[in-house]
Write a structure and sequence with these properties.
Distance between the termini: 34 Å
Shape: globular
Largest sheet: 7 strands, mixed
Helix content: 10-25%
Strand content: 15-25%
Number of strands: 13
Length: about 240
């Protein structure tokens, strides 16, 4: 799916992966589920690209529904995988998350897990090697992605600002479609280690100038960063 010049999405509102396409090659943001591999190949073909044009994958955090095809790209194609140093062990499968599920509705929850299973969520391969990143770092990748630490969902959760795409990729720092309730619009994400810290970390995004706020789960938000944060804080205080 083409969202804007330089910006594509694969997957859907349940689990999403993003591609930043520039003259220098492609940067992939998150790696979804293992079964998104075919969609990745198809989207690259539509761009006139191939897997060989991917210069790196940047993970917003180390949860399995964001690792998907990352190790396959690293192992078979030599693509480096970038993750915050505080989530490196999580991405390697060395530690388990201590998360809060929050409110659930049967239909939405079942739909999420059914989709995840169909897309290979039960056969996720953890990473064996990662490139650790830190807050404020600008990566030498297409689009010059800048790392913004937003701990809370996990200790190493990051947002990634890519000016050429007019976008900030937020992973599970927030969601626009709650996978356990089906509720839509900007709101706190489920499966969060520390919900209070996650909400407080949104202040690190307040100065980001970007039209697109792109979560790992939910509809792409084109209403700007400030409005997304305002809405989330309203929801959280209700």
């Amino acid at each position: 799916m083409r969202l804007a010049p330089h910006l594509r999405r694969i997957g859907n509102d349940i689990v999403a992966v993003y591609l930043v396409d520039t003259d220098e090659g492609v940067t992939v943001i998150d790696a979804g589920l293992a079964g998104h591999w075919r969609e990745l190949r198809a989207e690259l073909s539509d761009l006139g690209r191939s897997v060989d044009d991917i210069r790196g994958v940047v993970l917003t955090h180390g949860d399995t529904d964001h690792l998907g095809f990352a190790e396959r790209l690293r192992r078979d194609h030599g693509v480096p995988i970038y993750v915050h140093e505080a989530d490196a062990a999580r991405a390697r499968g060395e530690v388990k998350a201590d998360m809060s599920w929050g409110t659930m509705k049967l239909g939405a929850t079942a739909g999420f897990f059914w989709y995840a299973m169909r897309k290979g969520g039960l056969r996720t391969t953890h990473l064996t090697e990662v490139v650790a990143v830190h807050d404020g770092q600008v990566l030498d990748l297409p689009g010059a992605p800048r790392v913004i630490a937003v701990p809370g969902h996990s200790a190493g959760s990051i947002a990634i600002h890519v000016p050429i795409a007019d976008a900030v990729f937020v992973g599970d720092a927030l969601t626009t479609r709650h996978v356990l309730t089906g509720q839509r619009g900007p709101q706190p994400a489920p499966f969060t280690d520390d919900p209070h810290q996650a909400l407080a970390s949104l202040r690190h995004l307040e100065d980001v100038q970007a039209t697109w706020v792109l979560p790992g789960h939910g509809t792409p938000w084109s209403g700007g960063v400030a409005e997304a944060i305002r809405t989330i804080r309203t929801v959280a205080s209700a």
